[in-house]
C-alpha cells in the first residue's frame, strides 16, 4: 500500500503525493526560519515597489517646482516662493512661473501622502489577495492621518487627534489585515452563486471593520506612543543622536550595495523620513559614494601612481559605475567589491560614513528618499551635500588605488592591461 507524503511546492503550497513513502528528512529549523523571513521580505518589498513610483513622481514634480524659482529666476534659496510673489519684484510671466512653481510644489509633495497607504494596500494584497487591498489602503491612510477620538478635556467631550503610527502602523495593519483576509477566504465557504457577494462585499466589509478597530484601539495608540518616544529620545540626544544614526545608516547602506542589509537600512530610514522624524541624508549620500569612488579608481590610478591597478575590463565598468551612481544605483560597484571584498567592503563603509558625516556637518539635509541627481534640487545646502559625496568618493578611490598599488609592488597582484 502506498503511503501518502506531504510535499511543499515551489510557491509554498502543500500537496499530497501517494507515490513514495514518507522517509524524507525534516526541513531544518533554520531553513524554515529563512523561508519565513523571505516570505515577509517579499510582501514588504511588494508594497515598497508600488510605493516608489509615487515617491519618484512626487519628487520629480517637487524638484521642478524648486528649479523654477531658484535656478531659472535666480531667487535667493532662503526666500520662499510665496514670499517672492509678495515681494512685488515679479510681474507678468515671471509671476505666472512662480504661481505655477507653488502649485507644482503643493501637488508634488501631496503625492507623498499616498506613499504609506499604497505601501499598506499592496503589502496586504501580496498576502491576502485583491480582497485585502482596500482594507490595507484604509489602514495605511489612517496610519498617516489617524482618526480623532472623543475624550474628556476640561470636563467636556472633545475630538482629539492622536499621534500618527506612521510607517510602523502601516506595516502592522498590512500584515494583520492581509493574513486575516487570507484566513477569511479559506474559512468562509459559499456556493459559486454567492462568490461575488463574498469577494466584493462580505470580506471587504469584515476586513474594513476589523481594520477600523485595530487602527483606532490598538495600532495607533501603540505606534503613536513609539513614534513619540523615538522623537523625544532623538530630540534629547541632540546632534549626538543624529550623528550616531547617520553613522549606522551610512555603514549599513554601503555594506552590500543593494543587498538585504542595504534594503533593511533603507526600510528603517524610509519610515523615519516619511514621518519627518529624521532626514535620509546619510543614506542618499552613502548610496552613491562606493560606486563613484570605485569608478574614480579607474580614472585616477595612472595619474596618482603612474600605472593601471585593474585589469582592462574594469575600466569600462568604472565609467558605468559612475553613471549608475548619478542615477541613484549602487549596484555598479558590485564587480569591484566581488574582486577583493575583504578590503573593498570595509573601505566602502568607512568612505560612506566619512562622506555622510561631512555632508551633514556642512548642513546638508535631504528628506526626499532618492539619491539620483534629479533629486538634488530638493536638498537643503546642496553644496555641502556635493562636498560630502566628493570627500567620501575620493577617500574610497585614493585608498583603493594605494592599496592595489602596494599589492602590485609586493607581487601579490598581477594586472593584465593587454
UniProtKB/TrEMBL annotation:
Region called Disordered, residue ranges? 1-36
Domain (PTS EIIC type-2) ranges: 40-410
**Natural source organism:** Romboutsia sedimentorum
Q: Where is the composition biased (Polar residues)?
A: 19-34
Matching InterPro entries: Bacterial_PTS_Sugar_Transport (IPR050864), PTS_EIIC_2 (IPR013014), PTS_IIC_fruc (IPR006327)
Give membrane topology per the record. Multi-pass membrane protein
Q: Where in the cell is it found?
A: Cell inner membrane
Protein's UniProt keywords contain Transmembrane: yes
> Transmembrane stretches, by residue range?
48-68, 103-124, 131-148, 160-181, 201-226, 280-300, 343-362, 382-403
| Superkingdom per UniProt | Bacteria
Task: Give the protein name, as stated in the record.
Answer: PTS fructose transporter subunit IIC
Respond yes or no to whether keyword Glycoprotein is given for this record.
no
**Which keywords appear in this protein's UniProt record, sorted alphabetically?**
Cell membrane, Membrane, Phosphotransferase system, Sugar transport, Transmembrane, Transmembrane helix, Transport
Q: Where is the composition biased (Low complexity)?
A: 9-18
Amino acid at each position: 500500500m502506498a503511503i501518502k507524503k506531504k510535499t511543499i511546492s515551489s510557491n509554498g503550497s502543500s500537496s499530497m503525493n501517494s507515490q513514495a513513502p514518507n522517509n524524507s528528512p525534516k526541513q531544518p529549523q533554520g531553513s524554515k526560519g529563512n523561508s519565513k523571513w523571505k516570505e515577509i521580505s517579499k510582501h514588504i518589498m511588494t508594497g515598497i515597489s508600488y510605493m516608489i513610483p509615487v515617491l519618484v513622481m512626487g519628487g520629480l514634480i517637487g524638484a521642478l517646482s524648486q528649479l523654477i524659482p531658484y535656478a531659472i529666476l535666480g531667487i535667493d534659496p532662503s526666500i520662499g516662493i510665496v514670499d517672492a510673489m509678495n515681494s512685488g519684484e515679479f510681474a507678468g510671466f515671471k509671476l505666472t512661473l512662480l504661481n505655477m512653481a507653488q502649485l507644482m510644489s503643493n501637488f508634488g509633495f501631496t503625492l507623498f501622502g499616498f506613499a504609506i497607504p499604497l505601501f499598506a494596500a499592496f503589502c496586504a494584497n501580496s498576502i491576502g489577495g485583491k480582497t485585502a487591498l482596500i482594507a490595507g489602503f484604509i489602514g495605511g491612510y489612517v496610519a498617516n492621518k489617524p482618526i480623532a477620538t472623543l475624550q474628556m478635556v476640561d470636563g467636556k467631550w472633545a475630538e482629539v487627534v492622536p499621534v500618527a503610527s506612521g510607517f510602523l502602523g502601516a506595516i502592522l495593519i498590512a500584515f494583520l489585515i492581509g493574513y486575516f483576509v487570507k484566513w477569511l477566504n479559506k474559512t468562509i465557504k459559499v456556493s459559486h452563486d454567492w462568490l461575488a457577494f463574498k469577494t466584493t462585499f462580505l470580506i471587504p466589509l469584515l476586513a474594513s471593520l476589523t481594520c477600523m478597530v485595530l487602527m483606532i484601539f490598538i495600532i495607533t495608540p501603540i505606534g503613536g506612543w513609539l513614534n513619540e518616544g523615538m522623537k523625544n529620545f532623538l530630540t534629547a540626544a541632540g546632534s549626538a543622536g543624529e550623528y550616531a544614526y547617520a553613522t549606522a545608516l551610512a555603514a549599513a547602506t554601503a555594506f552590500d550595495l543593494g543587498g538585504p542589509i542595504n534594503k533593511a537600512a533603507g526600510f528603517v530610514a524610509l519610515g523615519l523620513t516619511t514621518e519627518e522624524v529624521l532626514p535620509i541624508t546619510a543614506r542618499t549620500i552613502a548610496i552613491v559614494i562606493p560606486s563613484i569612488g570605485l569608478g574614480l579608481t579607474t580614472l585616477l590610478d595612472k595619474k596618482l601612481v603612474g600605472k593601471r591597478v585593474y585589469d582592462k575590463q574594469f575600466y569600462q565598468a568604472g565609467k558605468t559605475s559612475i553613471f549608475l551612481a548619478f542615477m541613484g544605483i549602487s549596484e555598479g560597484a558590485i564587480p569591484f567589491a566581488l574582486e577583493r571584498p575583504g578590503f573593498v567592503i570595509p573601505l566602502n563603509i568607512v568612505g560612506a560614513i566619512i562622506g555622510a558625516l561631512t555632508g551633514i556637518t556642512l548642513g546638508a539635509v535631504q528628506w526626499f528618499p532618492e539619491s539620483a541627481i534629479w533629486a538634488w534640487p530638493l536638498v537643503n545646502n546642496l553644496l555641502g551635500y556635493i562636498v560630502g559625496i566628493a570627500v567620501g568618493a575620493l577617500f574610497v578611490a585614493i585608498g583603493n588605488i594605494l592599496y592595489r598599488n602596494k599589492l602590485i609592488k609586493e607581487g601579490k597582484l598581477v594586472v593584465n592591461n593587454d
